[in-house]
Amino acid sequence: MPKTLWIERLDTHAEPFWRVRLGTRGICFRNERAAREFAALLHSRRAWQLERNAEEKGAEAPE
Fold first, then answer.
1. Which terminal residue of the chain has fewer beta carbons within 10 Å of its beta carbon, N or C?
2. C-alpha to C-alpha distance for 45 and 54, rounded to whole angstroms
3. How many CA atoms lie within 13 A of 47 on its CB side?
């Protein structure tokens, strides 16, 4: 099952929080902009890692 990255708003009694989630893990931010910037960085880092893993897997395959 692919891990999906998403941002959700959590309304609390005092102020809203923004949770960035990847699969079952998440981190909360008080500032929406900070949450969105973190999510963008996480998305690009994850894409890079998946690409790198695919290249390594291809290099290991016998020809």
1. C
2. 14
3. 7
